[in-house]
């Protein structure tokens, strides 16, 4: 699973720090997800979607699979 987190975040003009403050996640956690170091849990995806005002389909790229 590849996340499009960086693309969605940048489209809003947000830094990792701003997304972290709004979502309640740390900036380093967001950075690690953007680098593909691990797949986030469903709970984390929901928190990101709520913060970014998007759907899971906007964040998850299923084309690779």
Task: Note down, in words, how this protein is organized.
- With 65 residues, the chain is mostly helical.
- The protein has a single domain (2-58), classed as lambda repressor-like DNA-binding domains (434 Repressor (Amino-terminal Domain), Orthogonal Bundle), CATH 1.10.260.
- The protein is 58% helix and 6% strand.
- It has 5 helices and 2 strands.
- A two-stranded antiparallel sheet has the order 1-2.
- Helix 2 (16-23) crosses helix 3.
- The longest helix has 11 residues, at 42-52.
- The protein starts with a strand and ends with a strand.
Give me a quick take on this structure.
With 65 residues, the chain is mostly helical.
Task: Give short descriptive properties of this protein.
65 residues, mainly alpha, 58% helix, globular
Per CATH, the architecture is Orthogonal Bundle
CATH class: Mainly Alpha
Strand order of the largest sheet: 1-2
What is the β-strand count?
2
Topology pattern, helix = H, strand = E: EHHHHHE
Mean pLDDT: 92
Helix and strand content put the structural class at mainly alpha
CATH superfamily placement: lambda repressor-like DNA-binding domains
Fold-level CATH name:
434 Repressor (Amino-terminal Domain)
Tally of distinct domains: 1
Query: Could you give a short account of the major beta sheet?
Result: 2 strands, antiparallel
Gyration radius from CA atoms, angstroms: 11 Å
* Contiguous uncertain segments of 5+ residues: none
Shape: globular
Helix content: 55-70%
- End-to-end Cα distance, whole Å, is 7 Å
Strand composition percent: 5-15%
Q: Please give the count of helices.
A: 5
